[in-house]
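Entry 14. Ran structure prediction on the chain below.
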Amino acid sequence: MANADIRNQTHSIIHCLLHDDGFDDVETDGPEDENSFDPVKIASKLKELGDDYDEKFIQPLIRNVQSAPGDQVVSVFAESVESLCQMWVLDSAEVASEKQLLKAAVTIGLVMKKNCPNMTGVIETAMAGFFNSRLTSWISQQGGWVSVSKGSKF
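Output, structure tokens:
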């Protein structure tokens, strides 16, 4: 798949990710073609990825910092960052660093959208720019967004 096509698809996916909240009941009309590009379905899978990553990794670290006594916040924050980085190092032996970038970008984008809704347009532009500059080649090597979103590619 051509990089220009992937970049255009990326913009559509990120727009759906940041502007559509109805992913719980994603349905399509007619028979499903698993090889057709559907930005809503891919955005839904990315949202699941970001939400899962946020729930399993980011939120526990945030709770640790929030519950730390005032004089320990700096050290607990530093430990949380180091812990997150260590998880990435351990996971990166099995998982492409591009997948880690995808997880982190989606998670940060969704957290920012939730906490800074007035910045959604800026976040969308930043995410698209990041995906297009850092992940387009990897997405292309995987066979495009449809292939990336299938099965265990996430």
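The chain has a mean pLDDT of 80. Will compare against last week's run tomorrow.
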